[in-house]
User: What shape does this take?
Amino acid sequence: MMNKKGSIFMTIIMALLLFMVGMIVTNFLKSPIDDARADLNCDTAAAITDGTKLMCLVTDITVVYWIILVVSIAGGAVLDKVIL
Assistant: This one.
């Protein structure tokens, strides 16, 4: 059984590992997002419908949501051990 300092240290190491893996996965998300943008024809905003514009926005914000999710999970794990 680890003491509190060891437990916090291991949690920080695991959170850093999770963060690094999450940022590596971000690179793999880029190609499918570019393909989806090309299929939706997001470059010509005047020629597409409102629904397609909305899908272009959702597709563009996918990477941002992924980064926020990774940071939230890693930060939450660390704060859980530090506070509780």
In short: The chain has three helices and no strands. Residues 29-84 form one domain.
